[in-house]
Amino acid sequence: MSTRIAFLKGHGTENDFVIVPDPENAIDLPPSAVAALCDRRAGIGGDGLLHVVRSAAHPEAKEMAAEAEWFMDYRNGDGSIAEMCGNGVRVFARYLQRAGHVGEGDLAVATRGGVKRVHLAKDGDVTVGMGKARLPEGEVTVSVGERSWPARNVNMGNPHAVAFVEDLAHAGDLLAPPPFSPASAYPDGVNVEFVVDRGPRHVALRVHERGAGETRSCGTGACAVAVATARRDGADPAVTGTPATYTVDVPGGTLVITELPDGEIEMTGPAVIVAEGEIDADWLASLAG
Ligand SMILES: N[C@@H](CCC[C@H](N)C(=O)O)C(=O)O
């Protein structure tokens, strides 16, 4: 009988993840294995994978081990690596709580985008200190078919292009990554958010994620959108001295984003574990390489 590897499945506003607990970093997860696990027909299915490793056991996280016991080794559904995942970090924290590694309250999670402070509230929502946005200078354009829009370049640890559009349907079927220019703006690819207004400090988005395609939500994307919208609205907290809170509707739910006068961004939203099971280790091993 072949060995089994535990997995769980979870989502945050329907951005869904395969969760692989591996405290000692003993499981080989090459891009081919990640892509197969995230495959919605031949695998478990997910927009991405959360490899749960002790920071001390992962070469990319060792230096953060004193601050954060656990490292979110995040992978996109196509097997590529990303710096950060906002919905993923909430689901990651929910998993740690469920597994009994942490209780309700505050914890720190190491990510490739640095250590993130997470608060697991009594009501079930999870708040994450997402750090500060960077807004690289320069014009960016994104397009879909015949239409194109100027976009705001916002970096939340990972890259985003935020385009305000008249109608979310103008983003089309988003089956392919929307072309952008200049190519030099995003040498490693980009997550593209299309945004419409819903009301005062209330917007809605659709997103095409690098390495995953169109998803039902993107936490870093929602933060990028809140920042870009605050700048557009003349509500930059660094200038006004007042926090700016935006409600961001995504196809899979709602996230609430607050930017503080010092630039720190907080994101609050749900995180749910829906299943757990076992992966056939022989099948997984056959995918390596
Ligand atoms: N869904 C995530 C973002 C995941 C990474 C992204 N696709 C990238 O490659 O940068 C989120 O919730 O932030």
In the residues, how many domains can be counted?
2
What string gives the helices and strands in order? Answer: EEHEEHEEEEEEEEEEHHEEEEH
Reported for the largest beta sheet, the result is: 18 strands, mixed
Helix % is: 10-25%
- Describe the global form: globular
Determine the number of helices (DSSP H or I, runs of at least 4 residues): 5
Q: What would the average pLDDT be, to the nearest integer?
A: 97
Can you tell me the CATH class of the largest domain? Alpha Beta
CA-CA gap between termini: 23 Å
Please give the CATH architecture of the largest domain. Roll
CATH superfamily of the largest domain: Diaminopimelate Epimerase, Chain A, domain 1
Q: Show unreliable segments.
A: none
Rounded to an integer in angstroms, the radius of gyration calculated over CA atoms is 18 Å
Helix vs. strand class: alpha+beta
DSSP strand content: 35-45%
Oligomerization state = single chain
Short description:
The chain is 16% helix and 42% strand.
Keywords for this structure?
about 290 residues; alpha+beta; Diaminopimelate Epimerase, Chain A, domain 1; 2 domains; 5 helices; 18 strands; about 15% helix; about 40% strand; globular; binds the ligand N[C@@H](CCC[C@H](N)C(=O)O)C(=O)O; cytoplasm; diaminopimelate epimerase activity; Diaminopimelate epimerase; lysine biosynthesis
